[in-house]
Amino acid sequence: MLDFDVVIVGGGVAGLSAALVLTRARRRVVVIDSGEPRNANAAHLHGFLSRDGADPAELLAEGRREVAGYGGEFIAAEALGIEHGVKAGFVVRLADGRALTTRGVIAATGLRDGLPEVPGVHERWGRDVAHCPYCHGYEVRDGAIGVLGGDNRPFTMHQAVLLRQWSDDIVFFPHRMDLTGEERERLTAYGVRVVDGEVVRLVTTDDRLSGVELADGRLVARSALFVGPRFIPQDGLLKALGCELNDNGWVAIDPSGKTSVPGVWAAGNVVDSPAQLVNAASAGSTAAIALNHFFLAEDVQSAITEHRAAQEPFSAAMERRVCEAVIGDRRHGI
Fold first, then answer.
1. Domain range spanning residue 55?
2. Are 107 and 55 in the same domain?
3. Per-10-residue mean pLDDT, the chain, length 334
4. How many domains does the chain have?
5. Do 265 and 239 form a contact (C-beta atoms < 8 A)?
């Protein structure tokens, strides 16, 4: 017998949502969590109905309590690999040496934010340096907001105009980007001030962002800064297992989160970079229901096979009896 019906790798909102659905469906579930949520630096979450403004850590803690209440298990560890089982299912290998056998897997391992290498960005990340206007724009409304150009060019260009909905004082720092004439016109026409020059550091006063310093010594006063990270999916487990990829290099899934490997689903930022918490929770629930239906189809087919096998001896015996009766009738001239 396999250790679990489902191993969920990742204890964030997507993973916990999947675990809640599956434990309530009376599946044997364990959540593997390395304890490094993407939003660990954020003090508040927003845009999640009934939880707006809550502490992200408390949301996860409450989710764990709910899952545990239905019999779900948790292991604080890093998953190093997922392999196909010898006869069926999968083996999930952990950094502490344990190997868990399971019928199915849901990967909810999230992504990493590749931030610009500008002093102060990493230190202020999740506080007054952010990336999502929908998550943090309202909290800095009408303030002096900056947008730092980076490797994710389309994202930062979009941020610069989007943030005008929250403030009239938006400065775009191309940093090392060379803007085209059309891009510069678009920003200027929409009321975004462009300040050229390489950004060398962020300046803080009393542990709050106060300005952006340029290589030529200029200091532009700003109270909040938005950056466009490179979204790096933590999908090494899925790729090593042989899951097919999209043209963009991310793991391919169907609308339910099913990967190309039967029995393996993925949910949340590991396969969907724009997904906010509410979207990740929905994706986890959707993946859990789809995986449970996958199990159901397997179980029904197995039951049919066993039922037919059990009927075969009975059918053979009945056929022999009929044949014997016919032969006997013929012997008696009937």
1. 4-113+230-301
2. yes
3. 95 97 98 90 87 92 97 97 94 96 98 94 94 94 96 91 97 95 96 97 96 97 95 97 96 98 98 93 98 97 92 66 60 58
4. 2
5. no
